Amino acid sequence: MKGFAYLAGVTTLRLDRERCIGCGMCPQVCPHQVFVLKERKSNVVAPDACMECGACALNCPVEALSVDAGVGCASGILAEWLRERRGRRGGGAGCCG
Ligand code: SF4
Ligand code: SF4
Question: Residue 93: is its pLDDT beyond 50?
Fold first, then answer.
């Protein structure tokens, strides 16, 4: 998903570089290439590509990352998808809407 971006400047993603031990986990788990590891420290190179899924913070061994997972675009997309599915099912007579 390189080049993908959500709204500019709204991500809740925070990186504490002092804490980072350069384990390389965040660049590995992030689905949107938000991080690049340089000189044994993580760098946020594409903050606007963050969909606030929380995978990086969950996998950081030293709690150098924080993000309000579940309040951003990913959550909104999932909620919309669920609403649509419910709408298709709700009250309809057919099984496959
Ligand atoms: S919250 Fe998800 S999308 Fe955002 S930087 Fe972390 S792993 Fe990448
Ligand atoms: S997961 Fe944490 S410790 Fe590892 S590179 Fe990323 S910020 Fe640094």
Answer: no
